């Protein structure tokens, strides 16, 4: 069991604040009157609604279907009536609204028929599609559709499977509690992942500040019929980041701009493994998750929460206190401030952190960067945050990209150590979203250029075709006139001149016909050249048949014509 | 002396031949500078610059016949990029060619549309679908917001709708640093 562990560069040790919430048991949050379920809770295309306003739905019923490969379905978290499909506030820093389905719950909490999946007997593709339709997405925070991650791709197998129980972010304890109380379920989910990915080595990394979780997982691992290694790793922020976890456990570094699967490693959060087990063994889609409610509340604890429950309900349950200065979704390092408390819990909500002036004193005013490079020492991605900051601030996004801006995991270590209190991560997020917006604009302008050029070409072509048609018409008219003229020409004087003129015209027409035929031959399909003898024979047979049909078609006409 | 002269003349002739040959064989098709300028222009194809599209404007700039500040959709930023590329001083946008506007797409009021196809003929990127006496509609994803379809409409049923900020289009804002206040 003694595994050589590696370390990653940088990182910080913020105060943990885990004991506030992990000493309490898990409680189920009561069923709220209204559930507001956003359709875009995952990365990729938003789900498409498949119910109408007024429909009665049951718990676990699909209310919006996955749209495309990188997408996941959305389900009713409880039974009730669909009262609205409209734009509502969602847990996003911008405070913008997004398409949501609102359910008025009927209190009966009636399930749909749940059928466990016999995953060993199913084709992997079919199983993945089922998981996509059960709304599975990564519960570690990135909410990437799990069905896509469970596709080993062209390599057909992924030798190393890492289950991430790091939970390095301060205050959050939902994964800790999940491992303590649902260790068996997690490992059931791991078995399904192992089956789909064909992994031979399974490592579960848990930070060593969660001794109870490690013990529970180790006990559960002995009950499994495959080898699982539970590896306690040193608690060191951001050790729970996927790339950092890979580095600590295997010593391998994910190359810049590549995915972990490129080096044969796939990483899932423990919550995802648990949700996968519920889906496969119990037929339950992803409709609830564990959420830590902590910070400035009377009773910090973890709740089992239905997706769509308003955050306000959870804060009231945990005991709201005076002096609240705001709410973060996620932890203090990477969490995003919520625009209001009425936003619902979504698949990505691992923590609702209530802020107060004592716990989270407002940051002092940012001072200019003094280029002390403490941020570079703290950066776990081994970047140069001070340079990235300089470029992002100046709008020099090209240089920022050259300095590997997109390897930044936005862990917040740089901002944490910055003696000038510069909100560095905000600059990186700004630069990233500007770069994405520009790429989008570039694609749009390329499309416009292509369409405009094609239009020009089409107009030219139409003009040319029209001119050709007119010319052909004029030719035909002249030829017609010439033909009519010829018999009428009186024999005698001027006959020679007239006939020579007609001859010239005829020659012109003949030339035109020849040209047209040459052109026709040019555009005629060329796929009859260079064919195999068998195909040639087939072509000849078909041609013979065609000739026969033509012959047959002509005969009755002739017979009709004949008296 | 004569030998040296001959050698120099010989070298000159050889180099001249190589240069002459490469001038013919390695000739660059089109104007590479116009290509680069065209890549910076926003491809709105609106004609506000006074040229019938972005490409002709790019060619005019490349030939030095047009200024770099005639493209309102490209805005300040586009003008700066052009200035960078051409190594000239940035200058404020020429007001006579119009002012930059928020990015919009055309919208056809389908109740009013009479199906005259005039807007279809005006659209530089074929982003309007419809047929004679059939209702027309805009393919919003392909509309560049050039407004060329607005004047030809005989019933004024086309309006320009600014693109509202929604979640897929949302961007992180530049953080505001509060520097220490003096006094």
What order do the helices and strands come in, and which of them pair?
The complex is a heterodimer of chains A (563) and B (183).
Chain A: H1 19-22, E1 27-28, E2 34-38, E3 48-49, E4 56-57, E5 62-65, E6 74-75, E7 80-89, E8 97-105, H2 124-133, H3 146-149, E9 160-165, H4 174-181, H5 183-197, E10 201-207, H6 211-222, E11 229-233, H7 242-250, E12 265-269, H8 270-282, E13 288-295, E14 301-306, H9 311-317, E15 324-329, E16 336-337, E17 351-356, H10 374-378, H11 385-394, H12 397-402, H13 413-417, H14 424-488, H15 495-523, H16 533-561
Parallel strand pairs in A: 1-14, 9-10, 9-12, 10-11, 13-17
Antiparallel strand pairs in A: 2-8, 3-5, 4-7, 5-6, 7-8, 13-14, 15-16, 15-17
Chain B: H1 2-25, H2 32-40, H3 54-63, H4 75-86, E1 104-108, H5 118-122, E2 128-129, E3 137-138, E4 158-162
Antiparallel strand pairs in B: 1-4, 2-3
Helix pairs in contact in B: 2-3
Briefly note the CATH topology name of the domain at 33-97 in chain B.
3-methyladenine DNA Glycosylase II, Chain A, domain 3
Tell the overall outline of chain A: elongated
User: CATH superfamily of the domain at 33-97 in chain B, called what?
Assistant: Electron transport complex subunit B, putative Fe-S cluster
Number of extended strands of chain B: 4
Helical segment count of chain B: 5
Mean pLDDT of chain B: 89
Beta-strand percentage range of chain A: 15-25%
- Indicate the percent of residues in helices of chain B: 25-40%
The helix-and-strand class of chain A reads alpha/beta
Strand order of the largest sheet of chain A: 1-14-13-17-15-16
Largest interface: A-B, 34 and 29 residues
The description of the largest β-sheet of chain B is:
2 strands, antiparallel
Number of helices of chain A: 16
Oligomer: heterodimer
CATH class of the domain at 33-97 in chain B: Mainly Alpha
* CA radius of gyration of chain B: 25 Å
Name given to the CATH architecture of the domain at 33-97 in chain B? Orthogonal Bundle
Report the helical percentage of chain A: 40-55%
The tally of beta strands of chain A, per DSSP, is: 17
């Amino acid at each position: 069991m003694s595994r050589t562990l590696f370390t990653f560069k940088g990182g910080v040790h913020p105060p943990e604040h885990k004991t506030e919430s992990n000493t309490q048991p898990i409680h189920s949050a009561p069923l709220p009157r209204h559930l507001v379920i956003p359709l875009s809770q995952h990365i990729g295309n938003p789900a498409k609604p498949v119910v109408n306003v007024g429909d009665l739905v049951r718990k676990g019923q699909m209310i919006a279907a996955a749209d495309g490969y990188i997408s996941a379905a959305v389900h009713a978290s409880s039974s009730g009536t669909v009262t609205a499909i409209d734009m509502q506030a969602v847990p996003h820093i911008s405070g913008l609204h997004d398409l949501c389905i609102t359910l008025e719950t009927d209190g009966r909490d009636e399930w749909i028929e749940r059928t466990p999946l016999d995953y060993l007997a199913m084709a992997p593709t079919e199983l993945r599609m089922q998981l996509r339709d059960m709304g599975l997405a990564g519960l570690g925070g990135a909410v990437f559709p799990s069905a896509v991650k469970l596709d080993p791709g062209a390599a057909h197998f992924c030798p190393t499977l890492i289950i991430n129980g790091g939970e390095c972010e301060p205050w959050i304890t939902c994964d800790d509690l999940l491992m303590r109380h649902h260790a068996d379920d997690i490992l059931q989910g791991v078995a399904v992942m192992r089956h789909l990915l064909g992994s031979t080595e399974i490592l579960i990394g848990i930070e060593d500040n969660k001794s109870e979780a490690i013990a529970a997982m180790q006990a559960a691992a002995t009950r499994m019929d495959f080898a699982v290694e539970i590896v306690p790793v040193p608690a060191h922020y951001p050790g729970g980041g996927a790339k950092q976890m890979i580095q600590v456990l295997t010593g391998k570094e994910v190359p810049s701009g590549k995915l972990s699967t490129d080096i044969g490693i796939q990483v899932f959060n423990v919550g995802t493994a648990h949700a996968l087990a519920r889906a496969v063994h119990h037929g339950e889609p992803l409709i609830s998750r564990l959420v830590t409610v902590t910070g400035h509340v009377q009773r910090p604890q973890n709740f089992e929460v239905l997706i769509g429950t308003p955050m306000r309900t959870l804060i009231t349950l945990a005991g709201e206190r005076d002096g609240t200065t705001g709410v973060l979704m996620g932890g203090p390092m990477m969490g995003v401030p919520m625009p209001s408390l009425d936003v619902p819990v979504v698949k990505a909500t691992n923590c609702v952190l209530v802020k107060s002036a004592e716990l989270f004193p407002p940051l002092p005013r940012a001072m200019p960067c003094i280029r002390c490079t403490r941020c570079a020492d703290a950066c776990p991605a081994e970047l140069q945050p001070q340079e990235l900051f300089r470029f992002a601030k100046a709008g020099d996004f090209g240089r920022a990209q050259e300095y590997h801006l997109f390897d930044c995991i936005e862990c917040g270590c740089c901002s944490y150590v910055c003696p000038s209190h510069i909100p560095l991560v905000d600059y990186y997020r700004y630069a990233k979203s500007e770069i994405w917006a520009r790429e989008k604009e570039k694609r749009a302008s390329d499309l416009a250029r292509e369409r405009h050029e094609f239009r020009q070409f089409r107009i030219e072509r139409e003009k040319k075709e029209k001119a050709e048609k007119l010319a052909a018409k004029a030719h035909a008219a002249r030829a017609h006139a010439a033909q009519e003229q010829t018999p009428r020409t009186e024999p005698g004087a001027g006959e020679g001149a007239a006939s020579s003129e007609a001859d010239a015209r005829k020659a012109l027409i003949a030339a035109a016909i020849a040209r047209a035929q040459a052109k026709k031959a040019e555009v005629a399909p060329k796929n009859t050249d260079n064919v195999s003898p068998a195909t040639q024979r087939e072509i000849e047979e078909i041609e013979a048949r065609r000739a026969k049909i033509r012959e047959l078609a002509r005969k009755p006409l002739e017979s009709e014509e004949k008296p | 002396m004569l030998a040296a002269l001959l050698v120099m003349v010989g070298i000159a002739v050889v180099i001249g031949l190589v240069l002459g040959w490469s001038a013919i064989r390695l000739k660059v098709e089109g104007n590479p500078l116009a290509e680069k300028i065209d890549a910076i222009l926003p491809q709105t194809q609106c004609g506000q610059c006074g040229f019938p599209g972005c490409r002709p404007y790019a060619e005019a700039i490349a030939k030095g016949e047009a200024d770099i500040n005639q493209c309102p959709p490209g805005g300040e930023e586009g003008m700066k990029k052009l200035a960078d590329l051409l190594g000239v001083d940035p200058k404020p946008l020429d007001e006579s060619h119009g002012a930059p506007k928020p990015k919009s797409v055309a919208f056809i009021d389908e109740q009013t549309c009479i199906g005259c196809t005039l807007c279809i003929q005006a659209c530089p990127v074929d982003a309007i679908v419809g047929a004679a006496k059939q209702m027309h509609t805009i393919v919003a994803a392909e509309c560049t917001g050039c407004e060329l379809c607005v004047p030809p409409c005989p019933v004024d049923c086309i309006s320009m709708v600014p693109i509202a900020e929604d979640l897929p289009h949302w961007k992180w804002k530049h953080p505001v640093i509060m520097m220490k206040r003096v006094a």
